[in-house]
Predict the 3D structure of the following.
Amino acid sequence: MKRIVILISGRGSNMQAIQQACRAEGWNAGVAAVISNVPGAEGLAWAQAQGLSTATVDHRAHADRATFEAALTAQIERHAPDLLLLAGFMRILTAGFVERFAGRLLNIHPSLLPAFGGLHTHRRALEAGCKVAGATVHFVTPALDHGPIVLQAAVPVHGDDDEARLARRVLAVEHRIYPQAVRWFVHDELRLEGGQVRHRDAAPQWLFYTGDRA
Ligand code: GAR
């Protein structure tokens, strides 16, 4: 039984999608804890209502990144995770932290990496005139929004999109690819070869949105 710890900073809708898939499909895994760096983050209440263990490590209560990460690491290690997930966790992590969890640390980012790392991805994709946008699940390496790609989903950008509409369309596919990536990880279906992620049975590591104009 694999132990999953999820780090959030806000709404936690990706965390919810993962917990729901895990429970509904009876994965050989369980969410051991949900930890937020923001006191009162919306996702914490949902996790508590599910009976999940939750904790808060407030970055503002720490003098610097090193002491914050030491406290965060201690809280994570209490749950001895096999897999640590960043799910809308909006703090930059040091190389030391990332290396400690190397190979078992995943992130979701709302763009087709390596395009648009960092913030305001949808605004920047619209400003660039992109015709497709999307999301990426990747193993985390010390470079921000960088690392071996597990899965990507692409969605169309419509001429009348604004940031909020595009964000909604991308979020809908995030809720499909993050649970898929975690499902593969906990069932040992992923292989890291030469810095690239391959699915054991060559399952498609992409998803193209084919719905209506949602
Ligand atoms: C998601 O869109 C996620 O991709 C993004 O924050 C949102 C969190 O939503 N993450 C990043 O921008 C990380 N660089 P959620 O809290 O509802 O899952």
